[in-house]
Amino acid sequence: MSLAGLSINLATIRQQYGFAAAVDACLAQNITAIAPWRDQIHAIGLDEAARIVRSNGLTVTGLCRGGMFPATTPEGLAAAIEDNKRAVDEAVALDAECLVLVVGGLPGGSRDLPAARGMVLDGLAALLPYAQAQNMPLAIEPLHPMYAADRACVNTLEQALDLCDQFGPDIGVAIDAYHVWWDPKLAEQIARAGAGGRILAHHICDWLVPTRDLLLDRGMMGDGVIDLKALRAMIEAAGYHGPQEVEIFSAENWGKRPGDAVIATCIERFETVC
Amino acid sequence: MSLAGLSINLATIRQQYGFAAAVDACLAQNITAIAPWRDQIHAIGLDEAARIVRSNGLTVTGLCRGGMFPATTPEGLAAAIEDNKRAVDEAVALDAECLVLVVGGLPGGSRDLPAARGMVLDGLAALLPYAQAQNMPLAIEPLHPMYAADRACVNTLEQALDLCDQFGPDIGVAIDAYHVWWDPKLAEQIARAGAGGRILAHHICDWLVPTRDLLLDRGMMGDGVIDLKALRAMIEAAGYHGPQEVEIFSAENWGKRPGDAVIATCIERFETVC
């Protein structure tokens, strides 16, 4: 099987490698699509990162991440919007296929989820024209409801698509198996997303039983309960055929194994269970 | 404030008390509504538990719990349905206001969530006539999506109400703040539930940030991020005015404090933040 359909999100090997070494490790196993995080880009410098991307002909399936809009003050929201514009600039420099947005949760002690969601809407409205002017699609990533308080108050595909529909084109969704697999409306909403041309990324990993940590205990594909082949079939039937991007946060397991072994396992599982 | 609107789910004080001692501890602080678990009832015996309920004029806001339908074999599903009939019998003996159903997750290594949901539908279809014959309402409790794999594959209020609508009357929902607070369709679906006369229970606790354990780190009301007053307003506007039932699984914090202090804190928070 060609590995053109496989991308490695560099969070998966962040404990082992900085950006340049991560790229080398991917290339050594014929992986030519990656998704870096902004802090990894900042550590090496945007120009050097962009040079590495171009000189190796890499596909950047997404830059992680913009978002985090809700704030306790108008100045805070304005600062978040400015930072998101820098994220757009970086995504453009890296020729990324989209800027992934984790929209943010409840700001500083707030219990007002509708207000946080309103700030996300305002933030997107301010950011989208800037991104459109540079031809950089924005990919809202609905996060699992267990992150509603502290990471993202957009928690279902339906909610993300409702947001997109308030804007029109150039904004869509990143569909991450970990965040959406449980959703009783998953098939319906993936079809809706595809019909609207809104599927911009397809992330994979697995849900472990038991899950020992809300953030850092994601599983390798095949080690959990997500029917990844069924998800892929829904996404492809909806018209999206881009790479599947492996994004595993696993501080105590995969994060502690040799990076080349992690990448080799991603490839083996991609070829067998995804 | 009268405490008639407050019920203590005995899971909240399970580490401190068996059924009889839990009742005594509640009565000592003028709590006259409780919700026991089946294992607590079995430990003392159904007849004795029913005698304690009657002799003290207690309200039983629900019996926890039936459900757990999905199984790896038809025999397993049939056994689950039989066990649920015993749960109905027990709820009737205790004069409970409803039997709470935690429907079950993926059976033994399955990745087939639609099939599990189908078994839930089949289980409910088999159980409901039995419950109706004894006048015992069934309350489907949609559980937070983080429990989809191992506890309940009904994960939103909308999904639970769609299930109810396949059956007609005598089946409804238990709305637990912990499970539903994040839902972008919460207000809409609570209104729908109320219009259909389907709100059978209202459970409260709080979502802590950070949450350190997926199951056993629920917060005391006021210690987390849930807007409990707003939730209560939605539920009351939808026509439900039954007690708020405090259900806190907190093995390492509230489970280790003296039971009377836990109950006193429940009362104080009920009077101030709920």
Automatic annotation (TrEMBL), chains A, B:
Keyword Cell cycle: no
GO MF entries: isomerase activity
Protein name (database record): Sugar phosphate isomerase/epimerase
Domain of life: Bacteria
Keywords, alphabetical: Isomerase
Gene3D superfamilies: Divalent-metal-dependent TIM barrel enzymes
UniProt keyword Isomerase present: yes
SUPFAM superfamilies in alphabetical order: Xylose isomerase-like (SSF51658)
Domain Xylose isomerase-like TIM barrel: 38-256
